[in-house]
Amino acid sequence: MSVLVVGSIALDTVKTPVEEHADLLGGSASYAALAASFFGPVRLVGIVGTDFPATEFEFWKSRKIDAQGVQRVDGKTFRWSGEYSWDLNTRETRSVALNVFENFQPALPESYRRTDFALLANIAPSLQSHVLDQMEKPRFVVADTMDLWIETTRADLDALLPRADLLILNDSEAREMTKETSLIKAGRKIREMGPRYVAIKKGEHGALLFGEDEFFSCGAYPLEDIHDPTGAGDTFAGGLGGYLAANVKGEVTFAELRRAVIYGSVLASFCVEAFSLERLRSLTKDEILQRYEVFRSMSQFEMSA
Amino acid sequence: MSVLVVGSIALDTVKTPVEEHADLLGGSASYAALAASFFGPVRLVGIVGTDFPATEFEFWKSRKIDAQGVQRVDGKTFRWSGEYSWDLNTRETRSVALNVFENFQPALPESYRRTDFALLANIAPSLQSHVLDQMEKPRFVVADTMDLWIETTRADLDALLPRADLLILNDSEAREMTKETSLIKAGRKIREMGPRYVAIKKGEHGALLFGEDEFFSCGAYPLEDIHDPTGAGDTFAGGLGGYLAANVKGEVTFAELRRAVIYGSVLASFCVEAFSLERLRSLTKDEILQRYEVFRSMSQFEMSA
Hints:
The structure is a homodimer.
Chain A: E1 3-6, E2 10-15, E3 20-26, H1 28-36, E4 42-48, H2 54-62, E5 65-72, E6 78-84, E7 91-97, E8 117-120, H3 125-133, E9 140-144, H4 147-152, H5 154-160, E10 166-170, H6 171-178, H7 183-192, E11 197-201, E12 207-210, E13 215-218, H8 232-247, H9 254-271, H10 278-282, H11 285-299
Parallel strand pairs in A: 1-4, 1-8, 2-6, 4-5, 8-9, 9-10, 10-11
Antiparallel strand pairs in A: 2-3, 6-7, 11-12, 12-13
């Protein structure tokens, strides 16, 4: 089954203490769509300018990522530039140019409207809602968000929450949103705001998943070298949503959500091994399954013999 | 089977942003011994002054903690005072008075020398070695350490490492000791310095366990309210060592070490729920087993139906 992915498509300039690269493909939808595509077909919604490389459309085609929903309009593609400090956990935005993204109104092609799974990658919550308005009762809606929307468009975000089955956000955002220092309390409180499930990302420390009476604590796959953390959260969301769409035929159970969170973590662990989407471009399904297995065995409490 | 526990016994004054308490029982051996005693008998080695409450000796007796190895000498008990900031992860030492601890030379009663399991809780590595010198071939030696010894008595620590089967230290200490930012690289490097196994504690983010070709990543039991983090690391070591001594008859396998790390984490999660040893004093074995089960089920990758 397909998953609809909407979010930003950007050209990034990323600087770490070790390297700097310009004009890299980036944006929440770019990462999320590619991550999801390892599990099944993707329907991509976004906007790019005339400076956007045509090769990317060919790449999407080769990966069963339907780009009918990507508008190509006069003007420049959204651009973001950021710099990471030594610990790679904190970053500073150096510049943002919205460009064609400024007047983006996602318009769903007719063929997209009946998609069962929607992944609303990180963009303004009003745009996320606008996409849902055009869909015919998706079975499961995953929404990602960030501090910017919590701080500047809280009413829009609050309106979206009851329409999301699963909300994804990171630990500091969960604390900011609820004014709770305990992530356990924060996760519960966010559930009361509408989403049936909440996933709190803790960066290199894994993720927590909250259901009504269920809870899952997932570590992170431990890495020796991290080159570029950009897009790790978007890739997590994409892997998670892609796994669900491809594998869950009936109701989305908590057991399936656990597995989805683990696949999201595995995809994110590959993402940060290289700049931009480079590692994901060369990644194979076999490598994903292998790392899932290693991750499972290093996290199991009881080993079978 | 018994476990020998050596370390500091102290009277602590602890201040958090919310509360302050004086003259609390503390010290690495106090926490480690009580944690270990939930699994089996303990042989305690330490030193106290004449101001040390006699009731504590009675309490130890009631818990099968043999205190023959605790010297009671003229002078005052070791005192420590510390203050935690809001996040409870960073603390500042306000004062330290070594008192009777200054000239401590651990002397093992004859009946202690053949103990199979030794837990060298956090004290100067020269004292840890001095205890091993008096033992007859313990089967498994767990040693805990801290930044102070890495910085001030590195040669003593290096001499101890090949005599330890498992070294325990926290994440920043592992990085400091190896000059590696990656904990995976740090864990491997420390193993090359002598100990067969290394456990790196990550505070509220769990622990990593390294063996020759084996690796275990353990989350932390998520807590809603933390009252006093003092002694959490010592309690982790005590739970781990106590579990091993009581449960491992033959060789200590990696599967048993995994379980020991989990029990250590469970004990530490109780420890921080109240000041000093208060929560551990009222704790029952049933509560430990229940939390182990909840922890296991919230951390499992695959759920059995």
